[in-house]
Amino acid sequence: MDLDWDAIARQFAVDDDDVSDRLPPASYAVAPTQTIGIVAQGRDGRRHLNGAHWSLIPRWSASKTLSYPTYNARMESAQHKPTFAESVQSMRAVIPASGYYEWKGRRPFYFHAEHDAPLLMAGLYSWWRPNASAPWLLTATILTCPAAEEFARIHDRMPMLVPADMTGEWLDRSIDGARLLRPVCEAGAELSRALRFHEVAPLSGDGRRLIAPLDHSEPMSLF
After folding, report:
1. Within 10 A of 127 (CB to CB), how many other CB atoms are there?
2. How far apart are the first and last CA of the chain?
3. pLDDT at 17
4. What pLDDT digit, counting tens, does each position of 96-117 carry?
5. How many domains would you assign to the chain?
6. Residue 107 Cα to chain centre, angstroms
7. Residue span of the structural domain in which 65 resides
8. Which stretches are annotated as coiled coil (predicted)?
9. Is 211 domain-assigned?
10. Using one digit for the tens of pLDDT, what is the confidence trace for 64-96?
11. What Å distances lie between residue 13 and 6, 8, 73, 169, CA to CA?
């Protein structure tokens, strides 16, 4: 996640005065429960770009920690799961990213768009707080779909991508998202076939070096 947040705000016609102070700094090792940036439409009809806790917590949860992971939601079942159903209906987001990692066994691979254009991942969001006197926490999850055939040999799932010409519908709270899941998934699958990927070294620390292609010409140590 190494993005020009002001450019993202312009792309989505976000009319907030200043977005930078609410969004996370660049990172090449973003993990669940950390802060990610999301674009969403509020009840006021305006689009907002804000930081969100990466692991969706439904508003009815008594605890911030759930007994199951919620940083991803399967496109095929999200509308039927109590954790995600309300968000599918009217609280959908676009989650911009520079790229993402998938693992084949213990080997990480980095996936990204040509020329490193931002990926627009389909997401869901929810507001949560532990009690009535506590501040609200914005939380989010990334929807996943079956991996394109070219990438299935690395991993059988991938983030669902939202084509630029479908972001308006996807963010529109007045549209029931249940009817958008399949068409967005199918259109996003076409986009995903243009992604590039390469193997990277085992992830440690942070920095742009994490996405550098693994140099297979160097001898591998056995110890």
Report:
1. 13
2. 33
3. 64
4. 999 999 999 999 999 999 888 9
5. 1
6. 21
7. 5-23+33-203
8. none
9. no
10. 999 999 999 999 999 999 999 999 999 999 999
11. 10, 9, 27, 14
